[in-house]
Design brief:
homodimer, mainly alpha, Arc Repressor Mutant, subunit A, 3-stranded antiparallel β-sheet, elongated, DNA-binding, WH_DNA-bd_sf (chains A, B), HTH_HxlR (chains A, B), transcription (chains A, B), DNA-binding (chains A, B)
DNA sequence: CAGTATCCTTCATGATACTG
DNA sequence: CAGTATCATGAAGGATACTG
């Protein structure tokens, strides 16, 4: 190893990183779940009894763009977490709802969201103290 | 305000801290928590009894760069979720551990991480089916 | 209504090098 | 050991316009 060139070390690092990704699909899944829009979409669907329409979700989740909403819903549909039902009326009607798999997840994500809501004050206090101490130095 | 009932005050607090609302501080906090590195750092600290050193964390979390590890730890320290202890020896020793607040959160994030580990197979199957159906069209 | 397509900007991340 | 500093780049995300 001591005779490795920098290029060889870089190559080995790259391969090791790729291997890590390949052998650990769980990390990719965790990265998907660790997404603000995913949390909000799943929480919105969990909070609402029955299916929600595309525009309902857009209205409920203030600040989400059409692009991100569609993108997030597609990813969640692909992962089997939400179901999508198209009613070919005029105009078209599309409903989204959590699947069985999605419901097994939603409680966990909702808990994180509610933790954020419940502990916002404590975090704000901690930030103020940190900023004070940091500025003092 | 003096005529507000406790229920009304709670309701107002709930609305004010609704994570679904844009520009709500809770929304920003949720975005912070919805971070792959945050999940992994908190999970690593939660899994390990007692404090962990910077290099321990770097080794445990494969694929994290120094920059992201430091950045994540600083943010978590600022938010009062992890504590940082410097021992001015030579060489310097720095230990990180979850605070009380951090422990109240860690269980939730660990649950999400374990959900990802437990349901990876189902998600993989769902993806295959989705890709099949999509390609068929 | 429920998207798609495109452009464009900023921001997050990684690689690299340096330090008390 | 535990960082900090700097740079480069790709990708995330928003704005806008269009469509079946």
């Amino acid at each position: 190893m001591a005779t490795m060139t920098a290029a060889q070390r870089r190559e080995q690092a790259r391969v090791a990183y790729d291997a890590f990704l390949r052998d650990c699909p769980t990390n990719q899944l965790l990265a998907r779940l660790s997404d603000k829009w995913v949390s909000l979409v799943v929480a919105a669907l969990a909070a609402h009894d029955g299916p929600m329409r595309y525009s309902d979700l857009g209205r409920r989740i203030a600040g989400v763009s059409q692009k991100m909403l569609t993108q997030t819903l597609r990813a969640l549909e692909r992962d089997g977490i939400v179901g999508r039902t198209v009613t070919p009326s005029v105009p078209v009607r599309v409903d989204y709802e959590l699947t069985e798999l999605g419901r097994s997840l939603s409680g966990l994500l909702v808990a994180v969201k509610e933790w954020a809501e419940a502990h916002m004050d404590e975090v704000a206090v901690a930030r103020d103290r940190y900023d004070q101490e940091t500025a003092a130095v």
